Task: structure prediction
Amino acid sequence: MTNRIDLKQDEMPDYWYNILPDLPEPLPQPMDTTGKAIQVLKSVFPAKVLEHEFSTEQMIRIPDDIRELYFQVGRPTPIIRAKRFESYFNAPIEIYMKMEGYTFAGSHKINSALAQAYYSKIEGVDLVTTETGAGQWGIAVAMASSLNNLNSKIFMAGASYYQKTYRVTLMKMLGGDVNPSPSALTNIGKELMKDEKNKNGSLGIAISEAVEYALEHNGRYNVGSVVNADILYKTIAGQEARKQLEINGIEPNYIIGVVGGGSNYSGLAFPFYRDYKDAKYIAAGSYEVPKMTKGEYKYDYPDTGKILPQVKMYSIGSDFIPPPIYAGGLRYHGVAPSLSLLMKHGVVEPRDYDQDTVFKYAELYTRLEGYVPAPETAHALPIISEIAKAAKEEGKRKVILMSFSGHGLLDLGSYSSMYS
Amino acid sequence: MTNRIDLKQDEMPDYWYNILPDLPEPLPQPMDTTGKAIQVLKSVFPAKVLEHEFSTEQMIRIPDDIRELYFQVGRPTPIIRAKRFESYFNAPIEIYMKMEGYTFAGSHKINSALAQAYYSKIEGVDLVTTETGAGQWGIAVAMASSLNNLNSKIFMAGASYYQKTYRVTLMKMLGGDVNPSPSALTNIGKELMKDEKNKNGSLGIAISEAVEYALEHNGRYNVGSVVNADILYKTIAGQEARKQLEINGIEPNYIIGVVGGGSNYSGLAFPFYRDYKDAKYIAAGSYEVPKMTKGEYKYDYPDTGKILPQVKMYSIGSDFIPPPIYAGGLRYHGVAPSLSLLMKHGVVEPRDYDQDTVFKYAELYTRLEGYVPAPETAHALPIISEIAKAAKEEGKRKVILMSFSGHGLLDLGSYSSMYS
Result:
């Protein structure tokens, strides 16, 4: 019996799904107390990305060139039924994994990076800039830039640059120009380098450098989470998944995934939201960075550097200093505004799980299914255990769709902590 | 325009292809000077694997249970047309990559590991043993054992064990019991540990330990290259590729790939051999371990420990000490007997390429296509350059099928040498 639901390239959906018009109430607007932040964004964001950020069109057509780029990096991705993992729970459940780890970049992030690089290119520039923390987003941007024949300047928090050598090497092989931040490439970097305490860098510093570098070198700045446009581009995953399940007559009772900034979970779940009102939506974060369960719904800065406009979202504070957990993608302090709004309305249920629990599930999944999830991705696995328990008690079959947001092959250094 | 040729799970071929009856002359038999070697093999090989080793049936049916296991690890794999890499050469060529790197194990090795673990399991044992050098085969065996609900005892050359920590961690997450060799788990290991000079271990020592451990603990020993049965199981890749190309009316003019022990290239090329006599067959090895171009066709030991029967093959000598090249899978001293015979008859043309050249091609491919090849895999890329040059001169379109034997995500540590 087969365990894979393929979708041919010519069956890939033609549209991204924009949730803004379908939200239960209008999305609170960004707040720009200084009046400068939005001006900066207009100078460094590609115009089309800015347009999409505020669009109220429900379906937005994917340009043919971006469809080609999606094909190039491994789209459509398959859905895999994790039968051996199902058996472990001895409960009436079916688990369908939307395998974003199958993309060449190894994660869902490439879905947005390709679109943003493309919308940068059509403005006639030859440079894209961005920041990266643990490196996943940087890999996606390096890849997207090369596939669009653009240069990329990537600012990576200094501490990560010297620690995540595999990811740095991959960015370089992909043609990315990756630099430890703070750097001497920008004025803000030069200024900050004078103080020894900044030498490890931070995501906030790296964002500031990437924005300045784009401004000074006629580049475009590409952003890897939280904003509406980024989520829009990532809905290609959910659009595909809907089609794959519907073709096969499979109706999910649960749609689950993990939340870093929110674009991964939203990218899978949003395309189901309008027509699958009976499904349960559950999203998990990290117990060590508990924005999902302990965040407050309020206006806050999306970036630690406070150069972007404030947005209304669940947040544990832009000043929150995350502990050094291994799921780098989950260290972010807030939840994307659109997803936050659905949490506020009780549509999406939040969870947070601790690293030890999550690593045990990652190990279990790897042994049973043969495929290693990213630590971030694995934070959704304990949700399955909860559902299995409930399904067993209720005696009713439950169908689960999960975003398998990335593979963990470049996270084996982190996982090795289990054996030392 | 699409660039991927999928094959559905229910379209996967039902048979492995055995080249033995189709060879231009009978394959020279193994030579067992002591009379002990074959006896040892009979005790530790699964009976079905031994039977396949000497079978003269041309097509051997794949058991349903193994088909299921192939599905579990990502089979069938797609063929990707590398259009951006084609464009680089500015020549009338088409490049089709059979993507064995897509399997969960990241390489073609899982195709054989699953079959051998299965044939071990049906004998009622609960243990599989093997050796591994750089770790790719160990990963495949750890995965195959867990998917067959078997334990695995993996002996890894000590120096690699402490160096290739990502691969060791992955084996452990997969449920493999991996040990640095020499170890105190076997008599031969204990004996060798007494001498400081053995502390780094070797593939030869690891084989000896794996065989002894299987003998002493009622396990079965699984072998990852060279032997006929191993190649037979790996022909699933070529069987699929033939079907994928034929469905789409594509006829390859060149079939290329790399040779470690020979099973990768043979797994892709052998199923074409009988019916595609006009195709050119070219296989590459490493210039630093030049068995392909400087090997001698003679009886030699397949293992450095000299416990296996001698076979007739191209070899640079079982005592050859390979330099520390990064393509660990190409450090082997010989070429599988069946492939050697085709080389002797001029059917398969040999090449050897040096590491610097190969790494440059790996970087180029990664930047253009977005997917990083294993260093081993990348040794076939310079062949494409040769073909492109000839095609341009001749002014005729040439279609190339290449075995993309594995991804390079766990080799980024090696690739980083390009940037230091």
